[in-house]
Amino acid sequence: MHRRSFAQLGLSLAALPLAMPRRAAAADKPLRKVRIAVSTTVLNVGYPMLTLPLTLGYWREEGYDVELMPVGASLQSIQQMVGGNAEFGEVNASVIVQANSKNGLPVRIAMGNGVIDWSVAVDANGPITSAKDLKGKTIGVFSLATGGIAYFNSFLRNNGLDPAKDVELVPLGLGAPPIEALRSGKVQGLLYWAAAIASFENAGLKLRKLVGEDWRQYPDYTLAVMQATVDKDPEMVVGIARGMAKATVYALANPDCARQLHWDRYPSTKPTGADPETLVRWDLNTQQAQLDSLKDAFTLNGGKLWGNADPAAYDRLVKFMLDTKQIDKPVAASSMMVKIPDYFEKVGRFDVAAVQAAAAACKP
User: Which of 81, 150, 238, 321 is most buried when burial is the number of CB atoms within 10 A of its CB?
Assistant: First the structure.
């Protein structure tokens, strides 16, 4: 998946009696179709907040028949929403900022899912132990346009290095090339996001990870929605986000159960080429990269409401993007937030302990 680089369809929800339980109400009404464009090419085990609501029926309980649409990079997800082909997009937060600041598009933040999880991976037994040791080194990246480079350059400058002179970047893509490049010494480090780094570890690399102190203080993966969709069907926005919040709690409570359920529903994404125990270890490692990001995002966004998006965190990202010239003018994070009364409180109205108990029992 290439994670780092515009739905105005809203479905009206008839008013329901306040005393009617959500499950009963959903059962009495036909499910409404909702599409989520996901910024990846393959929905592997690393997307439990999106795949588990389907497996566990969380979105059906809310009254929605959800289709996940892997579309590539975040820009493509935004384009799918603007073009009316998706109601939501799971995208990098920086793309939401750019859409609002540079293009004036009313893309809104519906849920905070992750943090910046990039790192510079180097040989665990090698001499590189700090940013200063990167001077004169060659670093492999997915592409020369990949989003992590802005964070990397800031990391170098903060440690007294000149990105233009002291380090060389080489585009390597994904798969075997970056692995072989590090093994052969063609590069001395790999600048990639956490799930990619996990895949390199699965292939046998022993890695030490260098990370900027501020990187995980910036939000990243975010559920996006157009303002027109919020205006037309706010209850749908709440329901979709609530399903994702419940799935996040479930996966964090029992990662191996989340892995088992993913393999059962999406057998084609199960890794191959090793014994069963190794395959389990590989996918748990891949999944853990996302779980760590989900957990850190919960803390970053206040640590009280699952899925909450704290404007202060997104304001920090806006400032960083201004400083690194990714945008030319600021945009207030508060203007990008979904504005539904008590929105995140509504998203969090579910029994967390019950979800955790269901995860412990590990039954669909």
Answer: 81
